[in-house]
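Protocol step 4 of 6: structure prediction from sequence.
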Amino acid sequence: MEKINAIGRRKAAVARVYLTEGNGNITIDRRALGEYFPSSILQYVVLQPLNLLGVADKYDIYAHLDGGGYKGQAEALRLAISRALVKINPEDKPALRAEGFMTRDPRAVERKKPGQPKARKRFQFSKR
């Protein structure tokens, strides 16, 4: 099996994933999963698609993460892994879609408008 690559995005984070047959090693920017994401919750988020399909120890994953915060990066990585797994086996797509792992979350920070302190907040109005 050759390298399967996929991309995932969430907020400002971008995850590029390379999947090969192996024994379940996950490397993110030359660091182990537990070292890159010390939080067990974020590790769980990253492993969700692999655990759902029961292939956590079947593939080696190398990922390159860029931008965003740790939560956005973890969710971008989850989407990229899901997309890579679907490239390998298209029959897995309905199961992943049912759990919401195939949907790109479109929510992002709203831009700040000129003449306002924040995106939606207005300066105090004074009638006189």
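Step 5 (inspection) to follow. The mean pLDDT is 94.
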